[in-house]
Protein: Cytosine deaminase
Amino acid sequence: MRDDESMLAIAREEALLGKAEGGVPIGAALFTVDGQLLGRGHNRRVQDDDPSMHAETAAFRNAGRRPHYRDTVMVTTLSPCWYCSGLVRQFGISRVVIGEATTFHGGHDWLAEHGVTITLLNDEACTTLMRDFIATHPTLWFEDIGKD
Amino acid sequence: MRDDESMLAIAREEALLGKAEGGVPIGAALFTVDGQLLGRGHNRRVQDDDPSMHAETAAFRNAGRRPHYRDTVMVTTLSPCWYCSGLVRQFGISRVVIGEATTFHGGHDWLAEHGVTITLLNDEACTTLMRDFIATHPTLWFEDIGKD
Structure:
């Protein structure tokens, strides 16, 4: 069984792939609660010109169709935005493991109120990655979260 | 300027395309507040084996990248689920026009609480379409909303 840090390492690898491609450096992966990898992905706004593919939606898509998600864990480098929090709530994903919520605070408190188990790891590497990205690409970042 | 009924007619066309393809018959379209069509789409779970493409996310994707959405209206044949409601909230879409909320009641009350203008048209054609689909394809429907 994978621990939270090793699951986050996979999401962070995805974020770094996104960075290397010139994209928004956020990564995610969907696992079973036993740590089996179901799907992994990263934000694809720049790469595919696709505003609908946040890291969590990409991991969810790559996991393929499933009858339910109550035995799954979404692992993401950054606190999930409302769009991705809505995904977690609608599909009944039981737990979210978050790299950091320092550079952006999304909907994870709302998810906790609705029974989702939230684990915030305060990972320095994730925080540094996003802080550098926001400082160097503010327009792209604000586009990605619909703020201008 | 298009009125609400003519915008809904486009979303309903999308839902019927989805039905004809053997998919989940929900359609959506994103317009400017002046009624200019930005993107239209329908649920693609069956067609693309893609659980992330609900009608609203498909319309959003097909509208392409935009710096902000405060001048846009999401029109959908069915009350938006939490995933699609989260999309509307995160990206600041200012208004949602809904065909029906009889067969499924999603997150539109929550959106209204957060300042989104909600118009519910109680369209009989949309209701009949979903009622027939749920009766004939219950497993596919519950998969689409993560319930089993």
The two ends of chain A are 42 Å apart (CA to CA). DSSP finds seven helices and five strands in chain A. Chain A touches chain B through 36 residues (CB under 8 Å). The first strand of chain A starts at residue 27 and ends at 32.
